[in-house]
Design a protein that fits this description.
It is globular and about 65 Å long. It contains 14 helices and 19 strands. By secondary structure, it is α/β, with parallel strands linked by helices. About 40% of the residues are buried. The termini are far apart. It has 3 domains: about 1-130, 3-Layer(aba) Sandwich (Rossmann fold), CATH 3.40.50; about 135-375, Alpha-Beta Horseshoe (pyruvate-formate lyase- activating enzyme); about 380-435, Nucleic acid-binding proteins (OB fold (Dihydrolipoamide Acetyltransferase, E2P)). Strand 16 (about 395-400) and strand 17 (about 405-410) form a beta hairpin. Helix 9 runs parallel beside helix 10 (about 245-250) and helix 13 (about 310-325) packs parallel to helix 14. The strands form 5 sheets. Strands 2-1-3-4-5-6 form a 6-stranded parallel beta sheet, with helices on both faces. The chain has a 5-stranded mixed β-barrel with strand order 15-16-17-19-18.
Length: about 425
């Protein structure tokens, strides 16, 4: 067997894509390896969201160049591929800067990897695929070869929102939804492989439109699969949170009371500059409706501080929105320029020290809310889906309906099952309890 190493950067959809690439190459004799050393093929599945994403990839390619040369000296060959959103954004620039790369493949073209491998072996040189054939890609997906207790399942890709800070519309293309039939087939396959929870993925997952099927209807159909006990979805956009999906959180017992709903800012001025097309009060009213439908729902979000032109008053509005909503957890970042996005050329860029101070204040507030939410579970008996063996000997790890990790000293035979756990304490990043 040949060895394949895939390094995944960024989002859950990239993790899903990495698994699919491994499934795609398995019939060619590639078995997954835990490290790049000695591998016959290395794929860097990249993300363009974080700061200096491309430079981190080039740095990694420098290290891999040495490994590739060492393998060649021993009479072997290492194929080197760059996939994902940096591949889409950089394209031929990658080959120019890193000629050791054999293949550059965008996130909508990785189904062509077997053809690209054959092309590289037959003719040498570099293979470049950065088109947007979403339908063709989905039609070419292999059945899942394996699954964990919790499995990702892409239902929608791309974005038509064009937020001014975001590269996704340029690297993933326009919104496209997979057919419900193909999704349900894959869901059943994952269930047969051992999945008990499905996490439905999309850049705008709640914009799902499968020939008249909404995300709520899709979740209802997936809930009919007996082995599937829990359903989650991410990432949502406030503009696509329809009435039926809000109602589904009350009506579908398998749909978990957990919603990641990015707001990015609490300032209407900043939200308009971001092209979010909602106001802070629009978001507040939406959350109020969601909580009326499912009072115990755990809300999470994304925030960007230091967006161009953000004033102290704008930042104060974000802090007030966080206080008003109350989050179980949230992700927060300093704004950083993305080449090709409208925000990258906006005037009034915020100074780095101001961004850092604002981020520190926001993260302290968010962490205090997270700890308060976690502390509210102490003493309760919670249904926990156990996923894997924990680091500490004799413990296994599972998650509550609110996605909180829980560590319990018990038999590993419970992995893959839901059991009642009495929560006894909170540590920095998890809960601890005993079987009830």
């Amino acid at each position: 067997m040949k060895k394949l190493f895939v390094k995944t950067y960024g989002c859950q959809m990239n993790a899903y894509d990495s698994a699919k690439m491994a499934d795609l190459l398995a019939p060619l004799g590639y078995a997954q390896a835990d490290a790049p050393e000695g591998a016959d093929m290395v794929i860097l599945n990249t993300c363009h969201i974080r700061e200096r994403a491309a430079e981190k990839v080039y740095s990694e390619l420098g290290r891999l160049k040495q490994m590739k040369a060492a393998k060649a000296r021993d009479g072997g060959k290492m194929l080197l591929a760059v996939a994902g959103c940096v591949a889409q954004a950089e394209g031929e620039e990658i080959v120019a800067r890193a000629p050791q790369v054999d293949m550059v493949v965008g996130p909508q073209s990785y189904h062509r990897l077997p053809e690209m491998i054959a092309r590289a072996a037959r003719a040498g040189g570099h293979a470049l695929e950065t088109d947007f054939p979403a339908l063709e890609k989905f039609d070419s997906l292999q059945p899942p070869q394996a699954s964990g207790v919790s499995a990702f399942l892409t239902v929608q890709e791309g974005c038509d929102k064009f937020c001014t800070f975001c590269v996704v519309p340029y690297t993933r293309g326009s919104e496209h939804s997979r057919s419900p039939e193909t999704i349900l087939t894959e869901a059943r396959q994952l269930a047969d492989k051992g999945a008990r929870e499905l996490v439905l993925l999309g850049q705008n997952v709640n914009a799902y439109d499968g020939g008249g099927w909404s995300l709520a209807k899709l979740c209802e159909a997936i809930a009919q699969i007996d082995q599937i006990e829990r359903i989650r979805y991410t990432t949502s956009h406030p503009r696509d949170m329809g009435d039926d999906l809000i109602a589904a959180h009350a009506d579908n017992p398998k749909l978990m009371p957990y919603l990641h709903l990015p707001v990015q800012s609490g300032s209407d001025t900043v939200l308009e500059a971001m092209n979010r097309q909602h106001t802070g009060d629009d978001y507040r009213r939406l959350v109020e409706r969601i909580r009326k439908s499912r009072p115990d729902i755990a809300m999470t979000s994304d925030f960007i501080v230091g967006f161009p032109g953000e004033s102290d008053t704008d930042f104060d509005a974000t802090m007030q929105l966080v206080r008003d909503i109350g989050y179980a957890t949230a992700f927060s970042f300093k704004y950083s320029k993305r080449p090709g996005t409208p925000a990258s050329t906006m005037r009034k860029q915020v100074a780095e020290d101001v961004k850092a101070a604002r981020l520190d204040a926001l993260q302290k507030l968010l962490l205090s809310q997270q700890y308060a939410f976690d502390d509210s579970q102490i003493g309760k008996i919670m249904p926990v889906l156990f996923e894997k063996v924990a680091r500490e000997e004799g413990q296994i790890m599972g998650r509550t309906p609110y996605l909180q990790p829980v560590h319990v000293k018990t038999d590993a035979a419970l992995i893959g099952q839901v059991a009642s756990v009495k929560i006894e304490k909170r540590t920095a990043n998890s809960l601890h309890g005993v079987l009830a």
